[in-house]
Amino acid sequence: MKNAAYQIMELTGTSTDGVDDAINNAILQASKSYGTLAWYEVISTGDVIEGQKRKFYQAQIKFGCHAH
Asked: Superkingdom of this entry's organism (predicted)?
């Protein structure tokens, strides 16, 4: 990361299959929107509950990509 500048953003991914899939969905969408990511970190995870059952998983990520 020598002499580099990064743009930092956050995005929340969702999945009905699990937290890992929610993270992957967030990374995929971020890559489609912003190009190659330099790094990411998981900020939080959560679930949406409906009728006493987990409806889907959420994962909020913070990610960095090279500033243009």
From this structure: Bacteria
Beta bridge partners of 38: none
Per DSSP, 51 falls in state T
pLDDT values of the chain reduced to their tens digit, one per residue, 68 residues: 577 888 999 999 999 999 999 999 999 999 999 999 999 999 999 999 999 999 999 999 999 998 76
pTM of the model: 0.85
**Structural domains of the chain, with CATH:** 6-66 (3.30.1660.10)
Neighbours of 42 (CB within 10 A): 13
